[in-house]
Amino acid sequence: MAGPIQLTETDFDQIKQNLVNYLKSTNKFTDYNFEASNLSVILNLIAYQAQLNSYNANMIANESFLTSAMIRKNVVANARQIGYLPHSATSSSTEIDFSFDLTRGLDLDKVYPGGLPSSLEIVAGEAFNVVTQDGSYIFNTIENHSAPIDSNGVADFRNVKIYEGTRISVTFTKDENDYTQKFVIENANVDTSKLHIEVQEDPNVNVTRFYSQADNITELTELSRVYWIEEVASGYEITFGDGLFGKALADGAKVYVDFVIATGSETNGIRGESSYTFTGNLNDSFGNVITVAPTVSRATESAGGGEVESIDSIKFRAPKSYAAQNRCVTATDYDMIVRDVYPAVDDVYVYGGELLEPPQYGRVFVAVKPTNGNALNGVTKNFIKESIDNYRIASLDVSFVDPEVLVIEVKSLVYYDDRKTISDTAGIVSQVRDSIQRYADSAGVSRFGGVVRYSKIVGLIDDANEAINRNVTELRIRKDIAAVIDTAASYEICFENQIEVDYHNPVVTSTGFYIAGESELYYIENNLPEIGSTVVDMQLFYMDELNQKVVTDRKFGTFDLLTGEIMIGVDNPITISQTLERQDLIKFRTKPYNNGQLIEAKRSVYLDFDVSQSEIAATIDGGAQ
């Protein structure tokens, strides 16, 4: 009697061998040479088909679940089942003030013999062109903006929100005879938050109605003018109501869609009023086209641009979004809702006021680290706060706090065996930097509320190349403080970690800066502590022409070694005129306690790695055998 066929194998060779074993177990093929016969070809085909079926079954099973799916369309489809829409690419935005002076370039007596118009209007669409070192970009207005003209012929536009991207309009017509009709915007970089949809409901009446995106099905009626949007393989699909939940489209209805194709995070961080050149359409109240160039007086730093949500992010956020159920009750709820309304963030940390000393009951504090820069500007904070009002509990007040960015730098000397690798010293250094950067970018590094362990850094340096035998590494922590230029001010620098005690060398140093009215380049460092002391003084000094340190103030501030808090200029505020670092920054570096065995991020402290400022060196290990 023939033995049973093994059904658990998925490898080609093993499947074929199982078939051979089965045939040998019968009386007809006991001594048959399978490899030297034509039967081997047939067995190969059967084994190949079995392996293909096994692979397909495995893929189907994996792609049916959110946690195991790897193909984007399947991940998106699985997330859709729990009501999660992956965030699209988003346009960076800025708030801008500008004014048009009609007396510049226009002969008012000829253009307006009957008197000045009452107002000027900017038509929705392209408004400004911005040129940076990375390229040229278009910024748009989503709606028309108007401003009155004063008696001097000047129209001031204030707080105008403009968005980066290419603005496009498309039109769809409802056809009830097309049972497979879909309204698809075929572009993967659509900013879905900037969609503007109007519908001409009656094809014989030239009147359009605005439709908004549905966010709560329980509030919809058969007359609600809403739409839904879903990510599909070619872009985004728009669907409308069925007559029960949302108004259904009549046959022949025209759908007008305006949207913005976003560049993403590339246009974050644009500064300076001079960068903006007006290219929009400007009309006066008489309907005349005006070609006067405006004067831009204010433009906030552009922010908010982001890329299409990644597969890993969808897998991580979709279940948490489902748990939040569109309401802000727990800290996790606030985290998810903030990410939904403003996707361009590196991390979000939320904590209740009851955790503070003294407690602030009834308040929720939100710290947001944007993808560009260290803190949100006031305009963005107001936008997020207004956006989450519909989700939060009315009795709780939401306050935004700027994250305290704590930068970690690595100083390492790597010893390697040159007989085990073809890489030279520069190659080893590059591999170590890449290893640290991958770790810094990985999801395993907690930004808010996380820790960095010295042992982990040492281990990943050793693993960067198999030729590395050992490394001598120390961690440094850094705080970047923005100086208030030409203004007397005091400064508080909080490392929020215990600092190493060194009785022989200063443990805190700063980058250089200039004090108003003086020509020397000054620095700050701590005085050497006394035995058993936990609070030391900070001193101000400069280097003379012989490169000798000249201390001008030995009690310039205080430094608490237990909490890592530095106080400068509390009693006598300091006026800084210029700094060596860009963006008016002064960088303070120090050594964490116990060589950084455990660096913690408490509450609004955000951990960040600066690999570019890390000091990595490599040398051949002379003791290698």
SSE inventory with pairings:
Layout: H1 12-24, H2 39-63, H3 72-80, E1 93-101, H4 108-111, E2 119-122, E3 125-132, E4 135-141, E5 145-148, E6 154-164, E7 166-173, E8 183-185, E9 196-200, E10 209-213, E11 226-232, E12 235-240, E13 254-261, E14 276-278, E15 282-284, E16 289-290, E17 295-299, H5 311-324, H6 331-341, E18 345-352, E19 363-370, H7 378-387, E20 397-401, E21 404-416, H8 425-441, E22 451-453, H9 454-462, E23 468-482, E24 491-494, E25 508-510, E26 513-515, E27 521-526, E28 535-543, E29 549-560, E30 565-568, E31 576-579, E32 585-590, E33 598-600, E34 605-609, E35 615-620
Parallel strand pairs: 10-11, 19-20, 21-34, 21-35
Antiparallel strand pairs: 1-6, 1-17, 2-5, 2-15, 3-4, 3-14, 4-6, 7-13, 8-12, 9-10, 9-13, 11-12, 15-16, 18-19, 21-23, 22-33, 23-32, 24-30, 25-32, 26-27, 26-31, 27-28, 28-29, 29-30
Helix pairs in contact: 1-2, 3-5, 5-6, 8-9
Number of β-strand runs: 35
Average pLDDT across residues? Answer: 87
Gyration radius over CA: 32 Å
Strand content: 25-35%
Structural category: alpha+beta
The biggest sheet amounts to:
7 strands, mixed
Residue stretches low in confidence (pLDDT < 50, at least 5 long) are none
What does this structure look like?
With 625 residues, the protein is α+β, with helices and mostly antiparallel strands. Helices cover 18% and strands 34% of the residues. A seven-stranded mixed sheet has the order 7-13-9-10-11-12-8, covered by helices on one side. β11 (226-232) and β12 (235-240) form a beta hairpin. 30% of the residues are buried.
